[in-house]
Amino acid sequence: MSTTIPDKLGKYEVRTEISRGSMGIVYQGYDPFVDRPVAIKVALSESLSDPESGPRYRKMFFNEAHTAGMLTHPNIIHIFDAGVDAETCYIVMELIEGGETLKTYTRPESLLPVEKVIEIVFKCAKALDYAHRSGVVHRDIKPANILVTKDMDVKIGDFSIAHINKPDSTATQHSGMMGSPKYMSPEQLREESVGSQTDLFSLGLVMFELLTGKHPFAADNFSRLVNRLLNDPLPPLRDFRSDLPEALEHIVQKAVAKDLADRYQMGLDLATDLAKAFDSLEGPVREISIEERFNSVKKLEFFQGFPDAEIWEILRAATWQDYRAGQDIIVEGELDDCFYIIISGKVQVRKKKKVIRSLDGGDCFGEMGYLAKTKRTATIVADTETSLLKVNSTVISQVSLNCQVRFLKVFLRTLIHRLSATTETMSQDV
After folding, report:
1. Active-site residue, 151 included
2. Is residue 88 domain-resident?
3. Do residues 34 and 116 share a domain?
4. Which has more pLDDT, 352 or 179?
5. Does residue 3 fall inside a structural domain?
6. 247 and 123, same structural domain?
7. % the chain with pLDDT above 70
8. What is the pTM of this model?
9. Are residue 250 and residue 131 in the same domain, yes or no?
Protein backbone atom coordinates (compact mmCIF):
# COMPACT_ATOMS: atom_id res chain seq x y z
CA MET A 1 0.00 0.00 0.00
CA SER A 2 1.50 3.34 -1.03
CA THR A 3 2.43 5.82 1.70
CA THR A 4 3.09 8.76 -0.67
CA ILE A 5 1.17 11.86 0.39
CA PRO A 6 -0.05 13.99 -2.55
CA ASP A 7 0.73 17.71 -2.51
CA LYS A 8 -2.74 18.74 -3.64
CA LEU A 9 -6.16 17.30 -4.39
CA GLY A 10 -8.22 19.67 -6.46
CA LYS A 11 -7.88 23.11 -4.86
CA TYR A 12 -6.97 21.61 -1.47
CA GLU A 13 -3.45 21.39 -0.06
CA VAL A 14 -2.61 18.09 1.60
CA ARG A 15 -0.52 18.33 4.79
CA THR A 16 -0.24 15.14 6.86
CA GLU A 17 -1.86 11.74 7.21
CA ILE A 18 -4.30 11.44 10.11
CA SER A 19 -5.48 7.84 9.84
CA ARG A 20 -5.56 4.88 7.49
CA GLY A 21 -8.01 2.03 7.12
CA SER A 22 -8.49 -0.95 4.84
CA MET A 23 -10.30 1.10 2.17
CA GLY A 24 -9.30 4.72 2.70
CA ILE A 25 -6.91 7.32 4.10
CA VAL A 26 -7.76 10.55 5.92
CA TYR A 27 -5.37 13.49 5.55
CA GLN A 28 -5.24 16.86 7.23
CA GLY A 29 -5.49 19.49 4.51
CA TYR A 30 -6.02 23.16 3.96
CA ASP A 31 -8.57 25.11 1.93
CA PRO A 32 -6.78 28.27 0.73
CA PHE A 33 -9.97 29.84 -0.64
CA VAL A 34 -11.71 30.10 2.75
CA ASP A 35 -8.53 29.86 4.87
CA ARG A 36 -9.46 26.87 7.01
CA PRO A 37 -8.03 23.43 7.88
CA VAL A 38 -10.01 20.47 6.57
CA ALA A 39 -9.97 16.70 6.65
CA ILE A 40 -9.66 14.98 3.26
CA LYS A 41 -10.81 11.40 2.94
CA VAL A 42 -9.25 9.58 -0.02
CA ALA A 43 -10.42 6.28 -1.49
CA LEU A 44 -7.63 3.75 -1.89
CA SER A 45 -6.92 3.05 -5.54
CA GLU A 46 -6.63 -0.68 -4.81
CA SER A 47 -10.26 -0.73 -3.63
CA LEU A 48 -11.50 1.29 -6.59
CA SER A 49 -9.65 -0.79 -9.20
CA ASP A 50 -10.96 -4.17 -8.04
CA PRO A 51 -13.05 -5.41 -10.99
CA GLU A 52 -15.74 -6.98 -8.78
CA SER A 53 -16.07 -4.62 -5.82
CA GLY A 54 -14.63 -1.41 -7.30
CA PRO A 55 -17.86 0.07 -8.77
CA ARG A 56 -19.77 -0.70 -5.59
CA TYR A 57 -17.09 0.83 -3.41
CA ARG A 58 -17.02 3.99 -5.54
CA LYS A 59 -20.78 4.38 -5.07
CA MET A 60 -20.42 3.85 -1.31
CA PHE A 61 -17.62 6.38 -1.13
CA PHE A 62 -19.56 9.18 -2.78
CA ASN A 63 -22.77 8.12 -1.02
CA GLU A 64 -21.19 9.53 2.15
CA ALA A 65 -20.71 12.91 0.49
CA HIS A 66 -24.27 12.92 -0.85
CA THR A 67 -26.11 11.80 2.30
CA ALA A 68 -24.04 13.57 4.96
CA GLY A 69 -23.89 16.62 2.72
CA MET A 70 -27.68 16.90 3.11
CA LEU A 71 -27.25 17.33 6.87
CA THR A 72 -26.15 20.33 8.91
CA HIS A 73 -26.03 19.51 12.60
CA PRO A 74 -23.45 20.31 15.32
CA ASN A 75 -23.06 16.61 16.16
CA ILE A 76 -22.65 15.35 12.60
CA ILE A 77 -19.35 15.79 10.74
CA HIS A 78 -19.95 18.46 8.11
CA ILE A 79 -19.17 17.63 4.47
CA PHE A 80 -17.81 20.56 2.46
CA ASP A 81 -16.95 19.10 -0.93
CA ALA A 82 -16.20 15.97 -2.96
CA GLY A 83 -14.41 15.36 -6.21
CA VAL A 84 -12.05 13.38 -8.41
CA ASP A 85 -8.49 14.50 -9.12
CA ALA A 86 -7.07 12.42 -11.97
CA GLU A 87 -8.10 8.99 -10.68
CA THR A 88 -8.17 9.92 -6.97
CA CYS A 89 -11.61 10.15 -5.35
CA TYR A 90 -11.80 12.40 -2.31
CA ILE A 91 -14.25 13.94 0.16
CA VAL A 92 -13.50 17.16 2.04
CA MET A 93 -14.98 17.45 5.50
CA GLU A 94 -14.80 19.21 8.83
CA LEU A 95 -11.50 18.60 10.63
CA ILE A 96 -11.82 17.33 14.21
CA GLU A 97 -8.40 18.16 15.64
CA GLY A 98 -7.26 15.87 18.43
CA GLY A 99 -10.41 13.79 18.15
CA GLU A 100 -10.66 10.08 18.83
CA THR A 101 -13.43 7.56 18.39
CA LEU A 102 -15.72 6.22 21.10
CA LYS A 103 -13.97 2.87 20.69
CA THR A 104 -11.35 4.24 23.11
CA TYR A 105 -14.01 4.44 25.83
CA THR A 106 -15.49 0.95 25.46
CA ARG A 107 -12.56 -0.69 27.29
CA PRO A 108 -13.08 -1.45 31.00
CA GLU A 109 -10.06 0.60 32.04
CA SER A 110 -11.12 3.66 30.01
CA LEU A 111 -14.82 4.02 30.80
CA LEU A 112 -16.13 7.56 31.01
CA PRO A 113 -18.14 8.93 33.96
CA VAL A 114 -21.79 7.85 33.80
CA GLU A 115 -22.90 11.46 33.33
CA LYS A 116 -20.57 11.86 30.34
CA VAL A 117 -21.90 8.65 28.74
CA ILE A 118 -25.45 9.94 29.10
CA GLU A 119 -24.44 13.27 27.57
CA ILE A 120 -22.71 11.60 24.61
CA VAL A 121 -25.59 9.24 23.86
CA PHE A 122 -28.06 12.12 24.32
CA LYS A 123 -26.23 14.15 21.65
CA CYS A 124 -26.06 11.13 19.32
CA ALA A 125 -29.79 10.50 19.77
CA LYS A 126 -30.60 14.14 18.97
CA ALA A 127 -28.31 14.10 15.91
CA LEU A 128 -29.87 10.88 14.65
CA ASP A 129 -33.35 12.26 15.25
CA TYR A 130 -32.42 15.20 13.00
CA ALA A 131 -30.97 12.87 10.34
CA HIS A 132 -34.00 10.60 10.42
CA ARG A 133 -36.42 13.52 10.09
CA SER A 134 -34.29 14.60 7.11
CA GLY A 135 -34.80 11.18 5.55
CA VAL A 136 -31.33 9.72 6.28
CA VAL A 137 -30.75 6.44 8.12
CA HIS A 138 -27.08 5.92 9.01
CA ARG A 139 -27.14 2.06 9.16
CA ASP A 140 -23.62 1.79 10.62
CA ILE A 141 -23.72 3.34 14.09
CA LYS A 142 -20.83 1.92 16.12
CA PRO A 143 -18.10 3.31 18.42
CA ALA A 144 -15.58 3.62 15.57
CA ASN A 145 -17.95 5.91 13.63
CA ILE A 146 -18.53 8.38 16.47
CA LEU A 147 -15.75 10.90 17.11
CA VAL A 148 -15.16 12.72 20.38
CA THR A 149 -13.47 16.12 20.25
CA LYS A 150 -10.84 17.44 22.66
CA ASP A 151 -13.69 19.18 24.49
CA MET A 152 -15.61 15.88 24.66
CA ASP A 153 -18.19 17.00 22.12
CA VAL A 154 -19.60 14.38 19.74
CA LYS A 155 -19.47 14.05 15.95
CA ILE A 156 -21.15 11.22 14.04
CA GLY A 157 -19.33 10.31 10.83
CA ASP A 158 -19.07 7.73 8.01
CA PHE A 159 -22.38 7.87 6.18
CA SER A 160 -20.99 5.64 3.40
CA ILE A 161 -23.82 3.08 3.62
CA ALA A 162 -26.52 5.49 4.74
CA HIS A 163 -30.02 4.98 3.32
CA ILE A 164 -32.19 7.85 2.13
CA ASN A 165 -35.83 7.32 3.08
CA LYS A 166 -37.41 9.83 0.73
CA PRO A 167 -39.98 8.93 -1.92
CA ASP A 168 -38.54 11.52 -4.33
CA SER A 169 -34.91 10.46 -3.88
CA THR A 170 -33.06 9.48 -7.04
CA ALA A 171 -29.89 8.35 -5.22
CA THR A 172 -28.67 4.79 -5.71
CA GLN A 173 -29.59 2.81 -2.59
CA HIS A 174 -27.40 0.01 -1.25
CA SER A 175 -29.45 -3.11 -0.53
CA GLY A 176 -28.72 -6.36 1.28
CA MET A 177 -27.01 -6.84 4.62
CA MET A 178 -25.15 -3.57 5.19
CA GLY A 179 -23.32 -2.46 8.33
CA SER A 180 -21.08 -3.88 11.02
CA PRO A 181 -22.45 -7.23 12.26
CA LYS A 182 -21.75 -6.54 15.96
CA TYR A 183 -24.05 -3.50 15.90
CA MET A 184 -26.74 -4.62 13.47
CA SER A 185 -30.40 -4.60 14.43
CA PRO A 186 -32.49 -7.75 13.97
CA GLU A 187 -34.19 -6.22 10.93
CA GLN A 188 -30.80 -5.52 9.32
CA LEU A 189 -29.70 -9.10 9.91
CA ARG A 190 -32.92 -10.35 8.33
CA GLU A 191 -32.35 -7.96 5.39
CA GLU A 192 -35.69 -6.23 6.00
CA SER A 193 -36.45 -2.56 5.44
CA VAL A 194 -34.71 -0.22 7.86
CA GLY A 195 -35.70 3.06 9.48
CA SER A 196 -34.91 5.28 12.43
CA GLN A 197 -35.29 2.41 14.93
CA THR A 198 -32.40 0.56 13.30
CA ASP A 199 -29.94 3.29 14.27
CA LEU A 200 -31.41 3.51 17.78
CA PHE A 201 -30.85 -0.23 18.32
CA SER A 202 -27.19 0.19 17.32
CA LEU A 203 -26.86 3.26 19.56
CA GLY A 204 -28.31 1.24 22.44
CA LEU A 205 -25.54 -1.35 21.98
CA VAL A 206 -22.95 1.44 21.93
CA MET A 207 -24.42 2.80 25.18
CA PHE A 208 -24.22 -0.64 26.78
CA GLU A 209 -20.52 -0.87 25.87
CA LEU A 210 -19.76 2.66 27.10
CA LEU A 211 -21.32 1.85 30.47
CA THR A 212 -19.89 -1.62 31.00
CA GLY A 213 -16.86 -2.10 28.77
CA LYS A 214 -18.55 -5.20 27.34
CA HIS A 215 -20.60 -6.02 24.25
CA PRO A 216 -23.82 -7.72 25.43
CA PHE A 217 -23.89 -10.26 22.59
CA ALA A 218 -20.18 -10.97 22.14
CA ALA A 219 -19.54 -14.24 20.28
CA ASP A 220 -16.58 -16.11 18.84
CA ASN A 221 -18.00 -16.50 15.32
CA PHE A 222 -20.41 -14.80 12.95
CA SER A 223 -23.24 -17.34 13.11
CA ARG A 224 -23.20 -17.34 16.90
CA LEU A 225 -23.20 -13.53 16.93
CA VAL A 226 -26.20 -13.38 14.60
CA ASN A 227 -28.07 -15.96 16.67
CA ARG A 228 -27.46 -14.01 19.87
CA LEU A 229 -28.49 -10.68 18.32
CA LEU A 230 -31.70 -12.22 16.98
CA ASN A 231 -32.69 -14.38 19.95
CA ASP A 232 -30.84 -13.74 23.21
CA PRO A 233 -32.34 -11.34 25.75
CA LEU A 234 -30.20 -8.36 26.65
CA PRO A 235 -28.30 -9.16 29.87
CA PRO A 236 -28.94 -6.72 32.73
CA LEU A 237 -26.42 -3.89 33.00
CA ARG A 238 -25.97 -4.75 36.66
CA ASP A 239 -24.61 -8.17 35.78
CA PHE A 240 -21.58 -6.24 34.54
CA ARG A 241 -21.60 -3.13 36.72
CA SER A 242 -23.51 -2.91 39.98
CA ASP A 243 -23.35 0.86 40.54
CA LEU A 244 -25.53 1.92 37.60
CA PRO A 245 -28.92 3.52 38.29
CA GLU A 246 -32.03 1.53 37.45
CA ALA A 247 -33.23 4.24 35.06
CA LEU A 248 -30.38 3.45 32.66
CA GLU A 249 -31.35 -0.22 32.72
CA HIS A 250 -34.82 0.65 31.39
CA ILE A 251 -33.42 3.00 28.75
CA VAL A 252 -30.92 0.49 27.34
CA GLN A 253 -33.48 -2.33 27.39
CA LYS A 254 -35.93 -0.18 25.41
CA ALA A 255 -33.30 0.97 22.92
CA VAL A 256 -32.20 -2.61 22.22
CA ALA A 257 -35.66 -4.21 22.17
CA LYS A 258 -35.81 -6.79 19.38
CA ASP A 259 -39.48 -6.07 18.66
CA LEU A 260 -39.91 -2.74 16.90
CA ALA A 261 -43.13 -2.11 18.85
CA ASP A 262 -41.15 -2.17 22.10
CA ARG A 263 -38.22 -0.07 20.87
CA TYR A 264 -37.85 3.71 20.89
CA GLN A 265 -39.58 5.10 17.82
CA MET A 266 -37.48 8.23 17.37
CA GLY A 267 -34.20 9.60 18.68
CA LEU A 268 -36.04 12.40 20.49
CA ASP A 269 -37.86 9.82 22.62
CA LEU A 270 -34.54 8.29 23.68
CA ALA A 271 -33.01 11.72 24.29
CA THR A 272 -35.95 12.71 26.53
CA ASP A 273 -35.49 9.68 28.77
CA LEU A 274 -31.74 10.27 28.92
CA ALA A 275 -32.31 13.86 30.03
CA LYS A 276 -34.55 12.66 32.85
CA ALA A 277 -31.93 10.11 33.91
CA PHE A 278 -29.21 12.76 33.86
CA ASP A 279 -31.24 15.04 36.14
CA SER A 280 -31.55 12.24 38.71
CA LEU A 281 -27.78 11.68 39.06
CA GLU A 282 -25.63 13.35 41.68
CA GLY A 283 -22.78 14.15 39.30
CA PRO A 284 -19.33 14.95 40.69
CA VAL A 285 -19.81 13.13 44.00
CA ARG A 286 -20.33 9.83 42.23
CA GLU A 287 -17.18 10.13 40.11
CA ILE A 288 -14.93 11.23 42.98
CA SER A 289 -16.27 8.23 44.88
CA ILE A 290 -15.44 5.70 42.16
CA GLU A 291 -11.90 7.09 41.83
CA GLU A 292 -11.40 6.85 45.59
CA ARG A 293 -12.71 3.31 45.57
CA PHE A 294 -10.28 2.32 42.82
CA ASN A 295 -7.36 3.77 44.77
CA SER A 296 -8.46 1.94 47.92
CA VAL A 297 -8.79 -1.40 46.13
CA LYS A 298 -5.49 -1.04 44.28
CA LYS A 299 -3.59 -0.78 47.60
CA LEU A 300 -4.86 -4.15 48.86
CA GLU A 301 -2.49 -7.12 48.87
CA PHE A 302 -5.13 -9.25 47.14
CA PHE A 303 -4.83 -7.09 44.01
CA GLN A 304 -1.05 -6.80 43.87
CA GLY A 305 0.01 -7.85 40.36
CA PHE A 306 -3.36 -6.99 38.79
CA PRO A 307 -3.12 -4.47 35.92
CA ASP A 308 -5.23 -1.35 36.48
CA ALA A 309 -7.58 -2.43 33.68
CA GLU A 310 -8.43 -5.68 35.47
CA ILE A 311 -8.94 -3.93 38.82
CA TRP A 312 -11.41 -1.62 37.07
CA GLU A 313 -13.19 -4.66 35.61
CA ILE A 314 -13.67 -6.25 39.02
CA LEU A 315 -14.52 -2.99 40.76
CA ARG A 316 -17.20 -2.11 38.23
CA ALA A 317 -18.69 -5.61 38.19
CA ALA A 318 -18.56 -6.36 41.92
CA THR A 319 -20.73 -4.77 44.60
CA TRP A 320 -19.29 -2.21 47.01
CA GLN A 321 -21.00 -2.47 50.40
CA ASP A 322 -20.72 -0.29 53.51
CA TYR A 323 -21.67 -1.55 56.99
CA ARG A 324 -22.03 0.25 60.29
CA ALA A 325 -20.51 -1.15 63.50
CA GLY A 326 -22.51 -4.08 64.85
CA GLN A 327 -24.28 -4.85 61.56
CA ASP A 328 -24.44 -8.48 60.37
CA ILE A 329 -22.71 -9.17 57.05
CA ILE A 330 -23.12 -12.96 56.94
CA VAL A 331 -25.42 -14.96 59.22
CA GLU A 332 -24.56 -18.51 60.27
CA GLY A 333 -26.80 -21.08 58.53
CA GLU A 334 -27.77 -18.84 55.60
CA LEU A 335 -27.06 -19.86 52.01
CA ASP A 336 -24.65 -17.37 50.45
CA ASP A 337 -22.38 -17.86 47.41
CA CYS A 338 -20.38 -14.64 47.74
CA PHE A 339 -16.73 -13.95 48.50
CA TYR A 340 -15.87 -10.77 50.41
CA ILE A 341 -12.71 -8.63 50.41
CA ILE A 342 -12.40 -6.11 53.26
CA ILE A 343 -11.49 -2.69 51.87
CA SER A 344 -11.42 -0.88 55.19
CA GLY A 345 -12.56 -1.46 58.77
CA LYS A 346 -12.64 -4.58 60.91
CA VAL A 347 -15.02 -7.55 61.22
CA GLN A 348 -15.54 -10.30 63.79
CA VAL A 349 -16.03 -13.98 62.93
CA ARG A 350 -18.50 -15.49 65.39
CA LYS A 351 -19.53 -19.09 65.82
CA LYS A 352 -22.50 -19.71 68.12
CA LYS A 353 -22.14 -16.10 69.33
CA LYS A 354 -18.52 -16.63 70.35
CA VAL A 355 -15.85 -14.47 68.67
CA ILE A 356 -13.28 -16.81 67.14
CA ARG A 357 -11.33 -14.41 64.93
CA SER A 358 -11.00 -10.77 63.81
CA LEU A 359 -10.26 -9.70 60.25
CA ASP A 360 -8.94 -6.32 59.07
CA GLY A 361 -8.66 -4.35 55.83
CA GLY A 362 -7.15 -6.49 53.07
CA ASP A 363 -8.40 -9.76 54.59
CA CYS A 364 -10.97 -11.96 52.85
CA PHE A 365 -13.79 -14.23 53.97
CA GLY A 366 -16.53 -16.39 52.48
CA GLU A 367 -14.28 -18.61 50.34
CA MET A 368 -16.13 -21.88 50.95
CA GLY A 369 -19.56 -20.42 50.29
CA TYR A 370 -18.27 -18.90 47.05
CA LEU A 371 -16.69 -22.18 46.00
CA ALA A 372 -19.36 -24.68 47.05
CA LYS A 373 -22.50 -22.54 47.52
CA THR A 374 -23.03 -24.07 50.96
CA LYS A 375 -24.65 -22.72 54.13
CA ARG A 376 -22.47 -20.38 56.13
CA THR A 377 -20.80 -21.98 59.15
CA ALA A 378 -20.13 -18.70 60.97
CA THR A 379 -21.55 -15.21 61.40
CA ILE A 380 -19.57 -12.17 60.25
CA VAL A 381 -20.29 -8.90 62.03
CA ALA A 382 -18.85 -5.45 61.35
CA ASP A 383 -16.75 -4.47 64.37
CA THR A 384 -16.27 -0.93 63.07
CA GLU A 385 -17.57 0.99 60.06
CA THR A 386 -16.56 -1.36 57.27
CA SER A 387 -16.40 -1.30 53.48
CA LEU A 388 -16.37 -4.54 51.50
CA LEU A 389 -16.12 -5.71 47.92
CA LYS A 390 -18.69 -8.45 47.37
CA VAL A 391 -17.96 -10.88 44.54
CA ASN A 392 -19.84 -13.92 43.24
CA SER A 393 -19.24 -16.36 40.39
CA THR A 394 -21.64 -14.52 38.07
CA VAL A 395 -19.57 -11.35 38.46
CA ILE A 396 -16.31 -13.12 37.69
CA SER A 397 -17.74 -14.84 34.63
CA GLN A 398 -18.38 -11.39 33.10
CA VAL A 399 -14.81 -10.08 33.27
CA SER A 400 -12.09 -10.81 30.70
CA LEU A 401 -10.48 -14.26 30.59
CA ASN A 402 -7.09 -12.95 31.75
CA CYS A 403 -8.76 -11.26 34.69
CA GLN A 404 -10.68 -14.45 35.57
CA VAL A 405 -7.48 -16.52 35.58
CA ARG A 406 -5.60 -13.99 37.71
CA PHE A 407 -8.49 -13.70 40.17
CA LEU A 408 -8.79 -17.49 40.48
CA LYS A 409 -5.07 -17.86 41.22
CA VAL A 410 -5.20 -15.30 44.04
CA PHE A 411 -8.48 -16.72 45.34
CA LEU A 412 -7.04 -20.25 45.52
CA ARG A 413 -3.90 -18.97 47.19
CA THR A 414 -6.06 -17.21 49.78
CA LEU A 415 -8.14 -20.35 50.31
CA ILE A 416 -5.04 -22.55 50.79
CA HIS A 417 -3.59 -20.06 53.27
CA ARG A 418 -6.87 -20.04 55.22
CA LEU A 419 -7.07 -23.85 55.31
CA SER A 420 -3.43 -24.10 56.41
CA ALA A 421 -4.02 -21.62 59.23
CA THR A 422 -7.14 -23.52 60.33
CA THR A 423 -5.26 -26.84 60.33
CA GLU A 424 -2.45 -25.32 62.41
CA THR A 425 -4.93 -23.92 64.94
CA MET A 426 -6.68 -27.27 65.25
CA SER A 427 -3.37 -29.11 65.77
CA GLN A 428 -2.44 -26.72 68.58
CA ASP A 429 -5.76 -27.33 70.29
CA VAL A 430 -5.25 -31.12 70.30
Report:
1. no
2. yes
3. no
4. 352
5. no
6. yes
7. 87
8. 0.69
9. yes
